[in-house]
Amino acid sequence: MEFAELIKTPRVDGVVLHRPFMPTVEGTLCLTGHHLILSSRQDNTEELWLLHSNIDSIEKRFVGSLGSIIVKCKDLRVIQLDIPGMEECLNIASSIEALSTLDSLSLMYPFFYRPMFEVIEDGWNSFLPEDAFKDLESMTDEWRLSEVNKDFSVCPSYPPLVAVPKYVDDDTLRKAATFRHGGRFPVLSYYHKKNGMVMMRAGQPLTGTNGRRCKEDEKLINATLRPGKRGYIIDTRTINVAQQAKARGGGFESEANYPQWRRIHKAIERANILQESLIKLVEACNDQSHSMDRWLSKLEASNWQTHVKEILTTACLAAQCIDREGASVLVHGTEGTDSTLQVTSLAQIILDPACRTIRGFQGLVEREWLQAGHPFQQRCAQSAYSNSKPRQEAPSFLLFLDCVWQILRQFPCSFEFSEGFLVLVFEHAYASQFGTFLGNSTAERAKLSLPEKTVSLWSWVNRPQELERLTNPLYEANSLVIWPSVAPQSLLLWEGVFLRWNRSSKCLDEAYEEMVHIIAYNKELQNKVNSLRRQLAQLETEDPLLQTP
Amino acid sequence: MEHIRLPKVENVRLLDRVSPRRSRVGTLYLTATHTIFVENKTGVRNETWVLHSLVCSVEKQAATASGCSLLIHCKNFQVLHFVVPREQECHDVHLSLQRLSQPERHTELYCFSYKPNVDEKERCQEWDFLDLKADYSRMGLPNSLWKLSPVNQHYKVSDTYPADLFVPASATPPVIVGSSKFRSRGRFPTLSYYSKENHAAICRSSQPLSGFSARCLEDEQMLEAILRSNPRSDFMYVVDTRPKFIGIENIHVMRNSQQKMLGVCELRSPSMSDFLEGLESSGWLKHIKAVLDAGIFIAKAVAEEGVSVLVHCSDGWDRTAQVCSVACVLLDPYYRTLRGLMVLIEKDWVSFGHKFSHRCNHLVGDPKEVSPIIDQFLECVWQLMEQFPCAFEFNARFLITIHSHIYSCQYGNFIGNNQQERIELGLRERTHSLWSYLWKNQADYINPLYRPDHSQTQGLLRPSTAPYCFKFWRGLYNRFDQGMHPRQSVEDYLRAIREETQQLEEQLASHKQKIAHLEQEQGWSVTQKAVTFDKSPTAWALGNDLGLANTPQDYTGGFITSSPCQPKAPDGCRILLTQDSNQTSESNLSNGSDQESGIADVSCHSPLSVDSTRDPDSDEAAYSAA
């Protein structure tokens, strides 16, 4: 297929662009295979370059022969294009609709994008499982890297290499995989160096209604317990939901078969409910009414903050079991690809200072989301403005980022990255020139040859100029476990994402710059004072009269 | 003393509000001014002091096997839950506290017995710190348009107005007196704020008396005079702030709203829905928005249209005070400085007769007169600070400290209902002034992001009043729930950085001087002894302060009960107002700090204000720092 077929009108003059909190721009609208471009052809006016894949939905409006297209983006921005000419407007609208909903992954922009920057380090190779395992090996010899999934046949959503208990062989893993949803047998997610406790994750056990059991599965997870120790299984679903799952062949670990484990049920909602919640929240934020009651009741009804609180609480619980109870933990929900990953990744943010660095956070996203098989392609296909019935869309990853932001707000000096980094990762998960978030699993990414054919987001981020921009000026390495508050009063609406386009951020940006300036000036003075001190010391030694004979 | 039925009770438990399983055991003392709880624990002296005048209500609950609960709610939103072993003791403490917290005469108030170590001359100077006349001259008054009128010198025209009032130059005493007869409590239209740039003014009064049909010639002449005092405008706005017009509710609605909102804050482990639904149904933020909206209208009328405004409500001392002072904060950068906000409160609230004694319930009195009107003003300022982080010279701690002392009765500033009462009470002669105390401790109240030359600092503030711009003020209403607040404070960090920067600047200057000196000497071969330099406190030292530990909350819903290392209850009340404890133990409103060791001081300045000293994680921090 040629893009040209989809572009009936490639160019329209006299188009007016309306954006929130920015002056309107009049110029020429151009459609290319991957971008919507509006250029005023005047100096010092910013051009609009919008990826078609960033467009969530559009609306058309006509007043006489003047048509308007309201473009709603996955990053939650809403812009309006006034297009003279009914036919042009219709053509542009239908082209945008077609180009923003391309089915074939290989037509996506990352396959066409060529980096305009020097790649210092190829992000595709920065966070390989074997490298992560080397770190683990330096702390413990109780684990091994299994190649049982090297052709993705045991678990299609797992990477080819996974860390498992040393004395559990691949046959046991294969059998355990048949007992877990999607073949997701328990694997290592995190090793807590301080006390040797671990966090594992898996899919739900397939006990079904007649209480099937699997000796290999039991053996596998018991192998992670120290003698005489008990562990905790955190099931992210309520006991009712978990019971209901039995009817569909799923279920949970019974006390009888897993006597060394204590099960805790939490209440993280399923994908479709989270998606509905996102839609309602964004709708509330875009409500133009000035009624406080209406805003608070819509915010409440969206349940978004409830999800944030529940996810964060569950992650804190997992971290508490590991760090305070000295127990190992197994986390799962149903598939083990959404709520499970929210919990395991947030628990690491709480427990492991390394995950609070820019690079460590990238590694965390790689390990616990991309390689762990979170289906990004499905989950991020649409965002909050989708008109179509949600299929498998869900803001699982956005909720994770929101929770990280909550912790960042409570510990503003303990993260190497600033809020901007989280916003950047959110944007790229939904629409990007980079291949990082394409596909649903390592297997799919390998099949598409993404590492060979596209550029990694991390290649772009890990360059000095970007790193500098994303660095939190307040950062002071904090080697401690950080326990966030989960009280409703402590959890805020993530303005940087949800109100980003609804209110001017000028004053807050200025405050941030002021803060950066205060810190930079301090550093500059320190350097000056140090250099003068050296100069002074030198002058004194050179002073012949000060030399002791 | 005669009110203290029982001066001391042992084996009292103080429950942690958030996690009641955590509690401290100690001895409860009742003194003439404070309730003091001293924790029994070897090696720590953990004290919680509560001023009787800050006690809002004392509630005794039915006795249970474990003892008898005594719930104390304070006006600064501290809630203390004691369990007293025997019911009779609880009964005695309850009755004593009820009497002690509801003084019947002004002379019983704390400000008359509060005697910090300050000599009489200095005490007198405290009261000269603020001068309202100076503020009017800052506005450019008197001038050809506005004059200082002696008409209310002896509070004869309006007993709730101040003696010094500015009126239009053309307003004659008969006009003023005539107008005052037409206005509730004689509160005739008078000047609150004057804009030197465009001559527009904010005036205030009470409602006209005889409904809308009756007329009063002098009152009309008075308004005409106000209009003529703004030569560039041919009309003016009259803003009636009541629900029928601008939509600010009365004191009773506001009181109930705050009660509901505080009920929400006090819920034990509420769900997100409980909290948001409760916040909505309390209506609190809606009321804050209404006050701010009205303030914005007036500020824009003055600054953008150059039109004068007359503001009134019913009596002109509640909603009128709120709206005029909010407009002033928006209009004039001076009122966004430390001194400026004090002047503003002194002008629009204290001098114009906001009934502090009634509204804050300083003395036992009519509960229907109590209302958090001033709280709403302080919150409006806080909401603006959230939108304009660089525009205010002061920080939220400043607002919270003022709030506390409005209710504490420790200083004479907010005693009585109007100027005349204050003079009769001899407050200037017998008490201390909060303003000079705040000024002396200004380092604690400075916003590190403030710069006088910053663009946000200039001119009119244009805040957004979209509902989502209003936040819940956790820092005030959940002030004592330490676990809810950010564990690291950006503001404290920046303040430390700025202090260090100042030292570096001094070092830089001194090094430069020494180098110049040395070079000169070496040129002239003159001997100079080597100088040693103090090592500057570096950012690492700051960083160690920030490497803080905290403890997990109750995430389990009680699932895990056999924790081998149950986190220690954080000391519930240490963050704020600890500065007081440095002065004298008497001035302690509420803290749980060791006054002798000066721990309170450290916790006040360091972002590390969480109780981390006994936490295993902090030991680790110490190891890694060593």
Automatic annotation (TrEMBL), chain A:
Domain Myotubularin phosphatase: 123-498
One Pfam entry name: Myotub-related
One GO MF term attached to the UniProt entry: protein phosphatase binding
InterPro entries, per database record: Myotubularin, Myotubularin-like_Pase_dom, PH-GRAM_MTMR6-9, PH-like_dom_sf, Prot-tyrosine_phosphatase-like
Major location category of this protein: membrane
Superkingdom, taxonomy of origin: Eukaryota
Cell location: Cell projection, Ruffle membrane; Cytoplasm, Perinuclear region; Endoplasmic reticulum
A Gene Ontology cellular-component term: endoplasmic reticulum
Keyword Cytoplasm among UniProt keywords: yes
Keywords: Acetylation, Cell membrane, Cell projection, Coiled coil, Cytoplasm, Endoplasmic reticulum, Membrane
Single GO BP term: phosphatidylinositol dephosphorylation
Membrane topology summary: Peripheral membrane protein
Family recorded in the similarity comment: Belongs to the protein-tyrosine phosphatase family. Non-receptor class myotubularin subfamily.
Record protein name field: Myotubularin-related protein 9
Organism encoding this protein: Perca flavescens
